[in-house]
Amino acid sequence: MPIIRTYARLFAVPGTRAFTVWNLVARLPMGMFGISAVMMIAAGYGSYALAGAVTATGLAANAVVGPLVARAVDRHGQSRTAVPATAVAGCGALGLAACAHLHAPAWTLFTAYVLMAATPNTGGMSRARWAHLFRDDAKALHTANSFEQAADEVCYLLGPVLGAFLCTALFPEAGTLVGAVLMVTGVVLFAAQRGTEPPAGGGAAVPLRVGGAVPLLAVFAATGVVFGSLEVVTIAFADGQGHRSVAGGVLALQAAGSCVAGLVYGAVPGGVDARRLRVCLAAMAGLMTAPLLAARAGGLPALAPALLVAGMATAPTMVTAMHLVQRRTPPERLNEGMTVAVTAILGGIAAGSALGGWAVEHAGEPVTGYWLPVGAAAVALVASRRV
Asked: What predicted TM-score, i.e. pTM, was given to this entire model?
């Protein structure tokens, strides 16, 4: 099949399969930590607002710490920087689980989650390797970027399912603990793949060139609000209908739709530009109305396929936006540039989580919270006009 041959070309390069496998292991917990923390804190403290505030604080801290870690990665190399940073993040995850288990004061939850902001941008490090390997092959790099976005979606497909299953089938802290083990193991073994690591060293700490950079980051932030609010509202909606244990599976359908769309998009030829980004964002804004309408009309059974449909514009949007970031980032600062973009997403997720938690507790019914991703997608579309 043409699509299979297109992606097989990437992994014919020596060393690519090894770094990809271990990067996926390291990346999977990124889809686990959010839902695991929400379910763990909501179960122990009885408050979705507190759970949303804790995750929002940790993600907001990443907006400060993430680019600093990425800058160190660019200057000193992936293998020398990622492992100690992950050790700090792992301690934060273990501390969060311990505090929740012991019902420690709420402020300790915030402190522990902030330590997790030291987690290196594993997806960015993988994209930097592809950019180094295919620096003279734009078509292969587009395919690699699409694969990486699909990999992100796989992690956010399997991560919530695994996190929710562990938290409900074993004990509330299980998702966070398993995530910490996978993160540390994956990063250590990914960093050990030296043959594909891009060279260290960088110039001035200016990750994005002037020219549409600020509006592009605004697009990332608004898209993050879509993700953060959608996750918290869906968990609360499923819980309200007595189906908390299937919340992760329902959310995974959104990631599944995005994953499939991303893989197909990677095999589609054609230039990636700001106009294509606006088309993708317009599609996302329209499709995000599906969960709102489905939740109002048919409850959880109707919501599941609506999330699948809503996800189909996500990966193409992110692939296109990330490619624009790569174009506007000096090669020696590539990891930092992509981390700044991811940080904008995480900042948006933080805001979306907090807004989603507030909405489900104060807006009368959880379904009202589905207006948040609709509005955030519209804001992203408006911001893209200046990219």
From this structure: 0.74
